[in-house]
Amino acid sequence: MPRKKPFSSKQKKLQLQEKRRRKRDDDNSSEDSDEEQASTSERLEVNKQPVNFASGKNDPNRYRLHFFKERKDEVEERKLRAKTEPIIPKKQTDLEIDFETVYRPGSVLDIPKRPPWDYSMSKQQLDSREEKYFQKYVGGIMEEHTAKELSYFEMNLETWRQLWRVLEISDVLLLIVDVRTPVLHFSPALYNYVTKSLHKSMILVINKIDLAPRALTVAWKHYLLKRFPELKIVLFSANPSEAAYSKGGDLQQQRRVFKRGKINRYSQSVGPLQLLRVCQEIVGNKVDLSAWEEKIHAELDEDENSIDETPPTEEKDGYEMFKGGVLTIGCVGYPNVGKSSLLNGLMGKKVVSVSKTPGHTKHFQTIFLAPTVKLCDCPGLVFPSIVDKSLQIIAGIYPIAQVREPFSVIGYLAERINLPKLLKLKHPDIDDGDQWTPFDICEAWALKKGFFTAKAARPDAYRAANQLLRMALVGRICLCLRPQGYTANEEFWNHHQETKQLSEELHKYEVTDDGDESSDDSTDDDEFQQEKGENSSSGSEEEAGERPIVGGRNPFAALSGDN
């Protein structure tokens, strides 16, 4: 180790002066126009880890999520509005959404496609060509849209390379979407590329169907089939017994009950048999899927308690349709739509680690579901779109621990769900009890849960907002978007034949919310503690800000005679 060089006071003074000069330059540059800012936007590398290249290991940040970093003045402006502007409830029709408002088909909001290549090219030549293409791709988007107008989207070329590889080796592509926000997770550009350019079949898996009303799930299915006729749709839930949608009115349907399942939470899944039927229809007699069918029926007959981890394999050979009589199924989707959980649900046991933190899966991995069926899990990708960033955060696309200002996101949620009534909150300001701001909701939740700052003992509104966002992510607070025209025809979908069939299918997993607030809230902290345990056991690297949120508890409660 080389000897440390002395660092004089004069050198230290010059260092501080240079640091102040750079800070002044940054402050001045923040006053530039949006167009100038868009061209020089700084990238934010989510969950970046320290690197020690001397160890000879690969860069752990190679597959990290990359987004555009927001300006400080924009963050402060949103925080001020969240503290001063009252919440104005939205109409039910405002929950309806379509593809034109999110992806604008035919515009520059396309997906990056791998440039032409062949085996005669060296690795350096291929990397150089892909980097130049990707820079041109991002530059074209930024010329048409400002960083403020664009939603978060993936800026890491290495992650897009994982998608390219999965698309190349897969015979059938599974696109997984969350039933609460399917339009947000479905890129028409990807659909067109797979079906028209690659000439491969795409199966849309509407996941987490236990989180939405049955009628809404069926309505989304028919809306997508009408819009994309070549699409095949499967309804799926990896662990319906852990969280079942509650019955009742609108308020009860936005509040959920969680029950702890058995040791093997993936042993009973809704949808594997339906997925098998669709794959049989696609491959015909080219691949023998009998072993997969036997596996599904065996799991339906009895639960498997094994949670052994199957080591993933990596495919390196060139593509050949149904190579070796094996069907390769690629799993693609946004972060937090449940791709890894779907793999575990199909296997009937845990084979890949799962985390609520976006970007947990960093490299595509292949797992044999049966001797003739191979699953390939791609890391979560955020496609370019025009959508409110608050909705992306609620959907789990952006890590909650990295949110610099969560109050405006709570405001977005409160405009569409009556949070004060749902959470039974008391206004922190008695004189203004009828007008709620997003900050008031966070303060009221902090008072209810006992969240206070360490020194001043003020209500910890930031911590409360963080927990509310996590509750929305896992479905404790359920915000579901609707297809166009659903509100006017809601009664039709409620009495639809497929709605009745789906209700019967999920009936055995249903848990009715009895309205007991204490039992509902008591599982909040256990759930987040469990998430922390899962992440640490699976090797997930997270920032220090994403720690388990523990509600305030009275250590002398056991001495009370009330209970």
TrEMBL record:
Region ranges (Disordered): 1-59, 509-563
Residue stretches of biased makeup (Basic residues): 1-23
InterPro entries (alphabetical): G_CP_dom, GNL1-like, GTP-bd, P-loop_NTPase
Gene Ontology molecular function: GTP binding; GTPase activity
Annotated ranges, domain CP-type G: 160-384
Composition-biased stretches (Acidic residues): 28-37, 512-528
Gene3D superfamilies, A to Z: P-loop containing nucleotide triphosphate hydrolases
Record flagged with keyword Lipid biosynthesis: no
SUPFAM superfamilies associated with the record: P-loop containing nucleoside triphosphate hydrolases (SSF52540)
UniProt keyword annotations, A-Z: GTP-binding, Nucleotide-binding, Phosphoprotein
Coiled-coil regions listed: none
Highest taxon of source: Eukaryota
Free-text function comment from the UniProt entry: Possible regulatory or functional link with the histocompatibility cluster.
PANTHER family: GUANINE NUCLEOTIDE-BINDING PROTEIN-LIKE 1, LARGE SUBUNIT GTPASE 1 HOMOLOG-RELATED
Name of the protein in question: Guanine nucleotide-binding protein-like 1
Species annotation: Crassostrea virginica
Source taxonomy: Eukaryota, Metazoa, Spiralia, Lophotrochozoa, Mollusca
Gene transcribed to yield this protein: LOC111123310
